[in-house]
């Protein structure tokens, strides 16, 4: 079911949002039985602390939810969201000292907390429903939540059920829902259409590689999204150890994230010309797998020396980025679970990104802070360009030495975006390893909400 707010109701229970600093005032305004109960339970308004309150007859009259102390409040996003899973069945309405921005965050967090991945096992749904708070754009928040649900579902689905064919089916379903056009080039037709790197990476798998090309909108500035769709990554002939292969169903997280962002843009009726390109492959092991030492010729004509078949994501993205760059939009944006170096640098919570335009980076950082979707800028450090130049070919897919792995990967991709005036690249993790309010363990959307908020300014809308 798509996430929805409950309709306004005179019978909705009040959910009192409070902090340690405002707690005494909040308790003083409660009826006697509720105040006595809260004091007896030691409610201290800590972050994500939730307490249902009784009325004089022993029923429920409302609840308290804590935001935590001011000094530590930035450590916990979506504190109010915990109430969605903790409270009893019924409609609830927010009341308390929340700014408009905090109210919108609380409302979104509530819907995100209600997400369940129940394809393979039934999961108890959250019974508490939130009425849309006054002053928020409820329809926009519902669109954002539904789009994050899509991203999470795609990443959480194991590769047996989310191969290149299933990823194509998901893209087609979204295109049908939103009235977009879609074209797919599959298998050996990739060679005929000059997508040699997508073909070579995916040719060893039973499920054929493909390039998904979705278009929507006829007016406004052009935006092209490119998402890495490696549906499972064994590492190829440079086989990953078992411990490193366990989460590789999420290696199509870039594709899942751009589909989620695309859904936000289309469902909100953004006045743009949108294109979504997804190279969808499996990096498998077979007799016809590409090899270390191979030199490949890309769509752009640049030759690439393969020093590691486990650095395949940048190869498939290279052909897709070249296609995007042939009819330059105002902005090209790529998203990929590309390097372990990015995860080591900033951990799983931050979405590291690269920008060729400082103005885009500043706009995005400000938007990320507004919508509680943290990002962190990384540098296109030009002196490292020599690290990806092997001498025997134009460019190296996996420089030796292990230094600056995320930066060199981003520089590799930038070589294929030469005509478009502005380029953004996200090297995301795409997975939440530890459950938190509104962010269950599993597939994660990263950077999409920040981009959705920032793109109107970036594109001059």
Question: What does this entry look like structurally?
Answer:
The protein has helices spanning 23-28, 32-40, 82-86, 100-113, 138-156, 164-178, 189-192, 196-202, 242-245, 253-267, 313-326, 340-346, 358-371, 405-414, 448-458, and strands at 13-18, 50-54, 60-66, 90-95, 128-130, 181-186, 210-216, 222-227, 229-233, 273-283, 295-297, 303-305, 331-336, 351-355, 375-377, 395-396, 423-427, 431-432, 442-443. The protein is an alpha/beta fold. It contains 15 helices and 19 strands. The strands form four sheets. Strands 6, 7, 8, 9, 10, 13, 14, 15 and 17 form a nine-stranded mixed beta sheet that branches. The chain has a five-stranded mixed beta sheet with strand order 2-3-1-4-5, with helices on both faces. The protein has a three-stranded mixed beta sheet with strand order 11-12-16, with no helix packed on it. Helix 5 runs antiparallel to helix 10 (253-267) and helix 13 (358-371) crosses helix 15. The protein starts with 12 loop residues before the first strand and ends with a helix. It folds into two domains: 13-132, Leucine Aminopeptidase, subunit E, domain 1; 142-458, Aminopeptidase (3-Layer(aba) Sandwich). Keywords: Aminopeptidase, Hydrolase, Manganese, Protease.
Helices, strands, pairings?
Layout: E1 13-18, H1 23-28, H2 32-40, E2 50-54, E3 60-66, H3 82-86, E4 90-95, H4 100-113, E5 128-130, H5 138-156, H6 164-178, E6 181-186, H7 189-192, H8 196-202, E7 210-216, E8 222-227, E9 229-233, H9 242-245, H10 253-267, E10 273-283, E11 295-297, E12 303-305, H11 313-326, E13 331-336, H12 340-346, E14 351-355, H13 358-371, E15 375-377, E16 395-396, H14 405-414, E17 423-427, E18 431-432, E19 442-443, H15 448-458
Helix pairs in contact: 4-5, 5-10, 8-11, 10-15, 13-15
InterPro entries: Leucine_aapep/pepB, Macro_dom-like, Peptidase_M17_C, Peptidase_M17_N_1
GO molecular function: manganese ion binding; metalloaminopeptidase activity
Family: Belongs to the peptidase M17 family.
């Amino acid at each position: 079911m798509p996430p929805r707010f409950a309709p306004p109701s005179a019978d909705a229970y009040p959910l009192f949002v409070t902090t340690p600093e405002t707690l005494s005032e909040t308790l003083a305004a409660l009826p006697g039985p509720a105040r006595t109960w809260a004091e007896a339970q030691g409610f201290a308004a800590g972050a994500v602390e939730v307490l249902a309150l009784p009325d004089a007859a022993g029923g429920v009259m409302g609840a308290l939810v804590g935001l935590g102390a001011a000094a530590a409040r930035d450590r916990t996003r979506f504190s109010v969201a915990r109430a969605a899973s903790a409270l009893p069945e019924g409609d609830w309405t927010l009341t308390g000292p929340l700014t408009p921005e905090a109210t919108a965050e609380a409302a979104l967090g509530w819907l995100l907390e209600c997400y369940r991945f129940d394809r393979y096992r039934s999961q108890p749904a959250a019974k508490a429903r939130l009425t849309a708070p006054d002053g928020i754009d409820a329809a926009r928040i519902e669109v954002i939540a539904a789009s994050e649900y899509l991203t999470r579902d795609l990443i959480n689905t194991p590769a047996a059920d989310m191969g290149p064919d299933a990823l194509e089916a998901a893209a087609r379903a979204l295109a049908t829902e939103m009235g977009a056009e879609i074209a797919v080039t599959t298998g050996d037709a990739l060679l005929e259409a000059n997508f040699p790197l997508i073909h070579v990476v995916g040719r060893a798998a039973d499920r054929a590689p493909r390039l998904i090309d979705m278009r929507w909108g006829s007016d406004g500035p052009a935006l092209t999204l490119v998402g890495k769709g490696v549906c499972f990554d064994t590492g190829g002939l440079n086989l990953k150890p078992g411990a490193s292969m366990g989460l590789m169903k999420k290696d199509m997280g870039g594709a899942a994230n751009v589909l989620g962002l695309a859904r936000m843009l289309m469902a909100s009726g953004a006045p743009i010309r949108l294109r979504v390109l997804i190279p969808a492959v499996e990096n498998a092991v077979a007799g016809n797998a590409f090899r270390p030492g191979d030199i490949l010729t890309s769509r752009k004509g640049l030759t690439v020396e393969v020093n590691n078949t486990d650095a395949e994501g940048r190869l498939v993205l290279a052909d897709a980025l070249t296609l995007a760059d042939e009819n330059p939009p105002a902005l090209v944006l790529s998203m990929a679970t590309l390097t372990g170096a990015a995860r080591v640098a900033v951990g799983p919570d931050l979405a590291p990104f690269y920008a060729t335009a400082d103005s885009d980076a500043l706009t995005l950082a400000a938007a990320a802070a507004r919508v509680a979707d943290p990002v962190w800028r990384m540098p296109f450090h030009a002196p490292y360009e020599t690290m990806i130049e092997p001498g025997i070919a134009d460019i190296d897919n996996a420089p030796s030495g292990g230094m600056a792995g995320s930066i060199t990967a981003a520089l590799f991709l930038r070589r294929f975006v030469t005509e478009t005036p502005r380029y953004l690249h996200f090297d995301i993790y795409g997975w939440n390893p530890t459950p938190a309010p509104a962010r269950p363990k599993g597939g994660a959307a990263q950077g999409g909400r920040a981009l959705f908020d920032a793109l109107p300014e970036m594109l001059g809308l």
